[in-house]
Amino acid sequence: xxSAVYVHIPFCRIRCPYCDFDAYRAPRRAIEGxxxxxxxxxxxxxxxxxxxxxLYFGGGTPTTAGVAGLRAVIDVxxxxxxxxxxxEVTVEANPTPRDAAAFAELRDMGVTRVSLGVQSLTDRLxxxxxxxxxxxxxxxxxxxxxxxxxxxxxxxxxxxxxxxxADWLADLEAAVALVPGHxxxxxxxxxxxxxxxxxxxxGRLELPDEDEQADMYEAALExxxxxxxxxxxxxxxxxxxxxxxxxxxxxxxxxxxxxGAGASSCVSGRRWTNESHPTAYAEAVRSGVRxxxxxxxxxxxxxxxxxxxxxxxxxxxxxxxTVRERYGAERLARVLxxxxxxxxxxxxxxxxxxxxxxxxLMLYDGVAAEILAP
Length: 374
Ligand code: SF4
Known about the structure:
By secondary structure, this protein is of the alpha/beta class. Helices cover 43% and strands 21% of the residues. It has 15 helices and 15 strands. Strands 7-8-6-5-4-3-2-1-9 form a nine-stranded mixed β-sheet, with helices on both faces. A three-stranded antiparallel β-sheet has the order 10-11-12, with no helix packed on it. The two termini are 27 Å apart. The model has no long low-confidence stretch (mean pLDDT 95).
């Protein structure tokens, strides 16, 4: 089965108050040290790459590695066996004039798609989100990428502090007017250890409640649907033919190779996560003594449950015959009562495929938890 490559660049120029990712503000020397280790890690593991349909640079903010740093990694990967010539190559970027200025060079080195963390197109909300760009700059970055022939995926966030339904509807209108091929809609969640969590605990952050957030999500599905965006995954919509190839690998529980500090891999039934701190990672790669922060061999039943839970994120659902062929009838029979229970409560449908109902979509986290419970 085709697989994917994920490259993690764990550095950011800013620290967004809602984000709990392992992302560091570091001097250029540390970023270059990480880039050197990345190249060495790819060279040492290039044999494991099977037909690869997608390369994805995430973070952090991958553009902190600089155009030359990204080019070096793309060149090494492109020369590796297994990377298909028409592989999708995505780079996450911030919609700032600085990142937009690099888009032409990114395209020329083989990048096909940019994923832009726009979050909001309302100027009043951007400072509270810690973003270092204006709404007009974000829109310009999207237009610039599209003009250059890059595919664009745009992230929008609902339920942010101070946001009302009118702001959200205006964001959706502005996003639709830009005509990106792909839009991701996220609901803000309070993550442990973030500035937002501290402010909220101290009563200094007011957020739209769960019902308002759910209404915003529904409004996004309605408005984007009317504009021709197909809702194909819990948080993702795309114009016809513009779905993310990379994320499909995760949702279909296929193999992926992750490179860089904190990157996860799932290869030949083993899953592990690289050393998360960039300095520790660079030192481990240099010395050859690797200390993955998580290393597990996946029992087939666990893998099957994950295949079902992840596959349900896709609105088309999971083909149960394929699951049976992949894991065996006996294992599938062990999880069928759980699926039937969910179906009896109107959360999934079971007709050759298991798929979320509209109600199941709103309660996806609970559905997945039940399937994953041993
Ligand atoms: S949201 Fe993106 S840019 Fe902001 S801190 Fe997190 S990874 Fe960095």
